[in-house]
């Protein structure tokens, strides 16, 4: 048989068969006087076995071991290892799906797994389509990396996020999306946002804050000018009061 004929017989491509020759998995048969390879039925049986093993998930090195004689590993041993590996993959996939389910159940704007403290805080927050609220919840995942201090803050903010009045504050911030940086609504909103924070929160703010240097500038860049002015004033007042 020519290479095209044996390829059609065993359900492989001629390219695959040439690759098996190249990597030494399948010995090259003798060539006829015209230069064409002459494949035997034995070659076809061998290729059929290679196809079955690769379809099971074995790599070519494992297939080579399976095809070897005394020097190779027993096929049953290889298949047991493959079964164990597939079981590990199944367990990994189940765990990934579990984590994905947790993420899908989280409020909009939350990126990735969060600590128990932040998860409890977000669970108390009402569902909202407010762009400002969605941003806030996403940014909390950064504060979440600050350690035990952040967890205390999350616990104390529970009553705040559940307060219906907070939704109105977010709406006021959303309303500044197209406003200039000197809009007269900026100062009253910043003051009202500051007043909404429970006093107990300030007692647990670390001396060096809960965010890394440069975070404020990066955060404000995400907002429109008037909104950035409100958030900047709030952050300054928040950290200033916390250091008293």
UniProtKB/TrEMBL annotation:
UniProt key word Hydrolase: no
Where is each HTH merR-type domain found? 1-69
**Classification via SUPFAM superfamilies:** Putative DNA-binding domain
**Keyword field:** DNA-binding
Q: Which InterPro entries match?
A: DNA-bd_dom_put_sf, MerR-type_HTH_dom, MerR_fam
Q: Which domain of life is it from?
A: Bacteria
Which PROSITE patterns does this chain map to?
HTH_MERR_2 (PS50937)
Tell me a Gene Ontology molecular-function term this record carries. DNA binding
* Alphabetized Pfam families for the sequence: MerR_1
The protein's name in its UniProt record: MerR family transcriptional regulator
Give the species. Answer: Streptomyces paludis
